[in-house]
Amino acid sequence: MPPISFKPLSDSDLPRLHQWMQEKHVSSWWEEGTWSFKDLKEKYRTYALGYKMDQGKKKEVLAFIIELQKRPIGYIQMYNALDFTREDFDPKEFWPDPLSSIGALDFYIGEPDCLGRGLGVEILQTFLAKHLFQHFNACLVDPDKKNTAAINAYTKAGFTMFQETESHIIMIATKLD
Fold first, then answer.
1. Rounded distance, CA 98 to CA 105, Å?
2. Contact 173, 143 (CB under 8 A)
3. Domains assigned to the chain
4. How many CA atoms are closer than 13 Å to the CA of 156, on its beta-carbon side?
5. What angle do the packed helices 119-130 and 148-156 form, to 10 degrees?
């Protein structure tokens, strides 16, 4: 497989993020697909600085542009899973061990010509090894139940189903020592 790398998100990447968010394969799963560029810029400019404001507090979010042979093809972000309550569950309810950290990630491939090539699995495995597992012992993802492409990619990348909610599947991958 060609080399995958991750470049920290910068303000200059925001027009590309907005363009990707308009792609049907992204907007189906990311609500930002309906946002104006101004709204997207307002949210993601702090991500480029390494944080998200949540209930008046700065919480760390590390955001990256996914590159395939130096070509930008997608977006990925990571953060402490316990910092954010999800739409239909709170990770603190099932991850009570404060000595075992759990991160979370969200990602998409934005470039349509890069879909269906198995890149998602390679992106996930590379990102977990080079970034997320450098900070956390486990990783949580919560794809929509209808997003079978994401569920398949996560499964192939080493995530296992942990729990099901009304609309999502909670999957976890653990760091291998």
1. 19
2. no
3. 4-174 (3.40.630.30)
4. 14
5. 50
**Model confidence over 41-93: pLDDT tens digits?**
999 999 999 999 988 899 999 999 999 999 999 999 999 999 887 777 778 77
Distances (CA, A) of 102 to 21, 82, 157: 27, 7, 17
The full 3-state SS of the chain, as one line of letters, equals CCCEEEEECCHHHHHHHHHHHHCHHHHCCCHHHHCCHHHHHHHHHHHCCCEEEECCEEEEEEEEEEEECCEEEEEEEEEEHHHCCCCCCCHHHCCCCCCCCEEEEEEEECCHHHCCCCHHHHHHHHHHHHCHHHCCCEEEECCECCCHHHHHHHHHCCCEEEEECCCEEEEEEECCC
Return the structure tokens found at 158. Answer: 């080493």
Cβ atoms of 48 and 7 closer than 8 Å: no
In the block, residue with structure tokens 């995958």? 4
Band of residue 106 on the pLDDT scale cut at 50, 70, 90: very high
Q: Other CB atoms closer than 10 Å to residue 166's CB: what's the count?
A: 8
